[in-house]
Amino acid sequence: MEIKFRNLYADEIECRINQINEKGLTLLLYKDARCDMNILDETVGAMNWSRRHTRDNANCIVSIYDEDKGQWVEKEDTGTESNTEKEKGLASDSFKRASTNWGIGRCLYTAPFIYVFRADKDGNANFSLAKNTKGKLACNDRFIVEAIRYDDKDNITAISIINATLNKRVYVWQQPKKTENSNNGGGKENV
User: Fold this and answer.
1) What average pLDDT is seen over the chain?
2) How far apart are CA 137 and CA 152, in angstroms?
3) Cα angle vertex 29, ends 57, 64, to 5°?
4) What confidence tens digit (pLDDT) does each residue in 113-158 have?
5) What percent of the chain is helix, strand and coil (3-state, nearest 5)?
6) Distance between CA 141 and CA 27 in Å, rounded?
7) Could you give the C-alpha distances from 53 to 50, 56, 111, 148, in angstroms and in order?
8) How many CB atoms lie within 10 A of CB 94?
9) Quick one: which of 128, 150, 120, 125 has its CA closest to 4?
């Protein structure tokens, strides 16, 4: 049995602020547990996969039924607690990680470094900057993936992100195209 999970659609990818300073912020891309459940249902069927948790939800085992072998095949991983609802977050994280072991969302590991500058070239804000109750810089804006493209090896080749709060595109990246260099036959990147 060979299972090929599709790449994530733009609306299945979440953005989370990782770091923030006066000049800009960095974003991380991730998927949620509902995305994994939907893709498992879509690809292998709702009755052909299962999940179970061990070690007080720290580990999750995602099993898929292999009809050719007539047996369940398992992949397991460990999660970490979230800042809110620790037990639920731990179970969700271990499930997402076990699903990634099957290949769901593995494409996110090929994402570029996503840095959103505080302002665009015209000086207009790309996000709202404030201070939280502890006096640290914060941003409560919501960022979403507008579009994403992959190559035939499931690597991200282009992505655009919108600040949904400001209804503004704030990040666009495309992998440089490789062309043949006629002198030595080697690849050369056009930027």
Assistant:
1) 90
2) 40
3) 45
4) 999 999 999 999 999 999 988 999 999 999 999 999 999 999 999 9
5) 20, 40, 40
6) 12
7) 10, 7, 29, 32
8) 26
9) 150
Dist. CA 104–CA 86, nearest whole Å: 24
Closest to 7 measured CA to CA, from 53, 60, 46, 43 = 43
C-alpha angle 11-107-81 in degrees, rounded to nearest 5: 80
The pTM for the full model equals: 0.85
Q: What is the pLDDT of residues 80-117, one digit of tens each?
A: 887 777 777 788 999 999 999 999 999 999 999 999 99
31 or 56: whose pLDDT is higher? Answer: 31
Give the Å distances, CA to CA, from 6 to 56, 59, 135, 136, 150: 31, 25, 43, 39, 11
- Give 21's contacts (C-beta < 8 A, 6+ positions apart): 137
d(CA 90, CA 38): 20
Question: Which is more confidently placed, 177 or 93?
Answer: 93
**Residue 97 burial by Cβ neighbours in a 10 Å radius (0-12, 13-18, 19+):** buried
Dist CA 66 CA 170 (whole Å): 44
Q: Which tokens sit at 18? A: 């990782």
